[in-house]
């Protein structure tokens, strides 16, 4: 079984189009979406429809919660709030009900999945450092936790009492006796100064994860944000011109 773990699409349909082609090329059999489908991008409705039609399991991220207004959440960035208000108007009541029905975490084949972190799903805590990983590993007993939210592909490996961070690799073997915290990166808005979309493939038969980086027309995605009169911040974010 080859399972794709995707996250943080953020309304970017141009990235999704390239993602879909790569999923087919890679022989992916199942897609798990770890949330933040909406906000920041110019095509929220199209992206939400793609996720509903193609993903086996879908989680709700904090921006999905904020846009749909399905529960109280604290976000202070005025540009994100402005974008969320616009995004709210692009989706239907049925869409908002669907988003409200999504969980914040779960399990797939005995592995933990969450949008942000496994101890308190929905906390919006970022796991990006060795200290973060050290604090998080005791919160789950399963071998692997796949998560999103960071917008950066990261692999933390716990072997007995040691923890190491692996980044900038194309694949990592899953070994018995070790635990893994795997940040799957972002489809719609990577934040590691590499504009290519990122996601993870877990090849369960070969016991390895593949870190995929895929080109897409991010200039076109940025132009559409600007053409719709949306905050320039989010066009700059995907073209790395911040």
TrEMBL record:
Q: Where is the Calcineurin-like phosphoesterase domain?
A: 1-206
GO cellular component terms attached to this protein's record: cytoplasm
* Pfam families referenced in this protein's UniProt entry, alphabetically: Metallophos_2
Source organism superkingdom: Bacteria
> Could you cite one Gene Ontology molecular function of this protein?
phosphatase activity
Question: Which positions carry the signal peptide feature in this UniProt record?
Answer: none
Recorded family membership: Belongs to the metallophosphoesterase superfamily. YfcE family.
The entry's protein name is Metallophosphoesterase
Q: What is the native source organism of this protein?
A: Persephonella marina (strain DSM 14350 / EX-H1)
């Amino acid at each position: 079984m080859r399972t794709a773990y995707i996250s943080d699409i953020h309304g970017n349909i141009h990235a999704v189009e390239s993602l879909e082609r790569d999923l087919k090329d890679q022989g992916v059999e199942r897609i798990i979406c770890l949330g933040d489908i909406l906000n920041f991008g110019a095509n929220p409705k199209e992206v939400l429809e793609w996720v509903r039609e193609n993903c086996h399991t879908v989680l709700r991220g904090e921006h999905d919660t904020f846009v749909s207004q399905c529960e109280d959440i604290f976000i202070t960035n005025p540009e994100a709030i402005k974008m969320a208000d616009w995004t709210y108007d692009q989706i239907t009541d049925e869409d908002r009900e669907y988003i409200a029905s999504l969980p914040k975490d779960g399990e797939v084949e005995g592995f933990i999945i969450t949008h942000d972190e496994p101890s308190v799903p929905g906390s919006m805590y970022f796991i990006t450092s060795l200290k973060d990983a050290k604090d998080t590993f005791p919160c789950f007993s399963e071998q692997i936790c796949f998560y999103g939210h960071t917008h950066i592909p990261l692999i933390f490996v716990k072997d007995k009492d040691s923890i190491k961070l692996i980044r900038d690799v194309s694949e990592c073997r899953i070994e018995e006796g070790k635990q893994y915290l795997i940040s799957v990166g972002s489809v719609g808005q990577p934040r590691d100064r590499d504009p290519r979309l990122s996601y993870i493939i877990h090849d369960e038969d070969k016991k390895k994860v593949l870190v995929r980086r895929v080109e897409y027309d991010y200039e076109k995605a940025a132009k559409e944000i600007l053409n719709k009169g949306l905050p320039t911040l989010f066009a700059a974010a995907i073209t790395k011109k911040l």
